[in-house]
Amino acid sequence: MSLLEVQDLTTQFQTKKGVVTAVDGVSFELEEGEAIGLVGESGCGKTTTALSITRLLPDNGRVIGGSVRMDGKDLLSLSENQMRRHRWNDIAIAFQGAMNALNPVMKVGDQVIESIMYHHGKSYAAARKRTKELFELVEIDPKRIDQYPHEFSGGMKQRAMIAMSLACDPKILIGDEPTTALDVMVQAQILDLLERLRKELKMAMILITHDLSVMSDTCDKAAVMYGGKIVEIGSVQQIIENGTHPYTKKLISSFPNMKGKRVLPESIPGTPPDLSEPPSGCYFHDRCAFAEERCRSAIPKLEMVGAGHFAACHRKEELA
Ligand code: SF4
After folding, report:
1. Ligand 1 near 295 CB (within 6 A)
2. In the structure, what pLDDT confidence band is assigned to residue 217 with cuts at 50, 70 and 90?
């Protein structure tokens, strides 16, 4: 049994344009201490997958199918009270946009202390002591506990958000675009920090990112998402070196290669599908250079292309 088993997860939103299926039959597993990257362009369903797993969807969103099992327990069938005990204690999320997530008129330390008191029921003094330990863990000088967010740099705010999500020693940490809006040097420091925390705390991680280089430095496995579906999943090495799906290949060529030969990044032509009116067949067909007739009518299934490596493309064998 895996630590986390997500099976056929399907989530819909009620919008002004009608019903949108933002997560469509997503399945993956996560072992203890393992890290998986959910990658893809904005709007592909990465964050909605995380919000569905943690049951933090906005009011107009609803999981309509599938299961999320953690240690064998189906999180989707728990009452909200039962789920509250698991959220943050077992599975925590560090939200994107640390710059805006902290309350600007409240001391950073107090924001962490408040979260510990609420979720752990600790006294103020015990929560303050724990906050200082967490600051040390994420490499913030504990003397800064009484400073306000405007006295923190962007990287330090992100570290504080990570500290807050670690307050209850979760088994799984979800990092939603943890390096967005940070400069390259600070990005690297945050990724090193996450990697160190994962090893030290033996924590599993789901890293949500649109940036393949972030994923490749930090994760063991990768799931490439497009139009709410996983279109390719495998080890990071399989995805980066032997990515089979045309969208995966485009995603890889759209990022600068830091290690191999220097080539100019390419843009991906077209735009992601409008999920209020999803296209027929393969959702990628109007952007794909390899599309043929059957791609416009039949939805490709996720099928094996190698050991632990799956892709959803009618032409996967030819393109492998
Ligand atoms: Fe391209 Fe067809 Fe494969 Fe879709 S199924 S990615 S359109 S070749």
Report:
1. yes
2. confident
Q: Is 305 in the pocket of ligand 1 (CB under 6 A)?
A: no
Q: Find out whether the beta carbon of 284 lies less than 6 Å from any atom of ligand 1.
A: yes
Ligand 1 atom closest to Cα of 283?
A: 4
What is the enclosing helix (H) or strand (E) of 161? helix 154-165
Tens digits of residue pLDDT in 19-31 = 999 999 999 999 9
CATH of domain 2-102+152-318: 3.40.50.300
Ligand 1: centre distance to CA 116 (Å) = 48
Show the beta-strand stretches assigned E in 40-112. 61-70, 73-74, 91-94
Q: Answer yes or no: is the C-beta of 175 below 6 A from any ligand 1 atom.
A: no
Check if the beta carbon of residue 37 is closer than 8 Å to that of residue 222: yes
Q: pTM for this structure?
A: 0.91
Spatial contact of 26 and 79, defined as CB atoms under 8 Å apart: no
